[in-house]
Amino acid sequence: MYFINEYAYRLRMKTASGRRSKRYLFTDKQIDIMRLLSEGKSRLEVAEHIGTTVQNVMILERRFNRNAEIAANSLKLLRDLDFAASAKITAGTHLLDAGMTVIRVADSMGISLRHNAVTLVSEIRSYLGGDVRKGIINREIEVLILPSGNILVL
């Protein structure tokens, strides 16, 4: 059971090293391992593919899961403390409409976004990757709006 399959698919990144990504709590190698596991490869196949041992794959998988749990707990805390405003966007919504929804929620909460409409839509699109086709969002998302004006797309 890999509860992180969803994370691995969303983190469509090419790996080059064990460097920690600037956007995620995970190293490039951890992301690569989880992507391969989510594709159905065994730990042995993953180890052979990236040139390491099964034990190292298991260690990196365990670290990924620990970091994913920390991230999930942090988001839960933000919600529980009502620290962030939330804009829920349903599947089938156009990107431009999603951007306007986020702007309306931020305005209603008195939060000044750090993005204009164009960069906001671009930021949402970059998080969604292949989940946007012809400007339409293909899955339900939640956009957390932090008091600082930054956003988190979930």
Characterization of this structure:
It is a single chain. Mean pLDDT is 83; it is low at 1-17. A hairpin with a 2-residue loop joins strand 2 and strand 3 (136-137). The chain has helices at 5-10, 28-38, 43-50, 54-80, 95-108, 117-128, and strands at 85-89, 132-133, 136-137, 141-145, 151-153. The strands form two sheets. Strands 1-4-5 form a three-stranded antiparallel beta sheet, with helices on one face. The chain starts with a helix and ends with a strand. It has 154 residues and is mainly α. It has two domains: 5-78, Arc Repressor Mutant, subunit A; 84-153, no CATH class. It contains six helices and five strands, in the order H-H-H-H-E-H-H-E-E-E-E. The protein is elongated, with a radius of gyration of 17 Å. Helices cover 51% and strands 11% of the residues.
